[in-house]
Automatic annotation (TrEMBL):
Keyword set, alphabetical order: Glycosyltransferase, Membrane, Transferase, Transmembrane, Transmembrane helix
Listed name of the protein: UDP-glucuronosyltransferase 1A1
Stated family: Belongs to the UDP-glycosyltransferase family.
UniProt-listed SUPFAM superfamilies: UDP-Glycosyltransferase/glycogen phosphorylase
Gene encoding the protein: UGT1A1
GO cellular component: membrane
Pfam families: UDPGT
Protein's cellular compartments: Membrane
Lineage top rank: taxon: Eukaryota
InterPro entries assigned: UDP-glycosyltransferase (IPR050271), UDP_glucos_trans (IPR002213)
Length: 139
């Protein structure tokens, strides 16, 4: 995670930064998937959670481990994030989200975008599907 954060400030060619970011996201995703897998295969801990009779699982929807644990424990999952990853909130509600007007999450754009900000917004939208596939395909 630290390497991913530091890579933002490195002065490398654009394409090299894209490839490096992809590799870092892939490594981070593998680490988080491994942690989730170990949690789910820890029979003692999962039994202890089941015996605790919780009412719900509070989770961040960015990674699916929380909802998977909730499903395993037959508990409702309560998400605490204002946006779902990969545009799933727009898909689930069938709300239109034209990138020329609606800023993407983490773009730091307002709804009054310049032409270059609109181009940036479209590039972020285009890269989301690719990065979401990298992050979520192991699950």
């Amino acid at each position: 995670f630290v390497r991913l954060g530091y890579s933002v400030f490195e002065k490398k060619p654009f394409l090299q930064r894209v490839v490096q970011t992809y590799k870092n996201v892939q490594k981070s995703s593998a680490l988080l998937f491994s942690a989730c897998s170990h949690l789910l295969h820890n029979k003692e801990l999962m039994a202890s959670l089941a015996e605790s009779h919780f009412d719900a699982v509070l989770t961040d929807p960015f990674l699916p481990c929380g909802p998977i644990v909730a499903l395993h424990l037959a508990l409702p999952a309560v998400f605490f994030l204002n946006v779902l990853p990969c545009g799933l909130d727009f898909q689930g509600t069938h709300c239109p989200s034209p990138p020329s007007y609606v800023p993407r999450s983490l773009s730091f754009n307002s709804d009054h975008m310049t032409f270059l900000q609109r181009v940036k917004n479209i590039l972020i939208l285009a890269s989301e599907g690719f990065l979401c596939n990298v992050v979520y395909s192991p699950y």
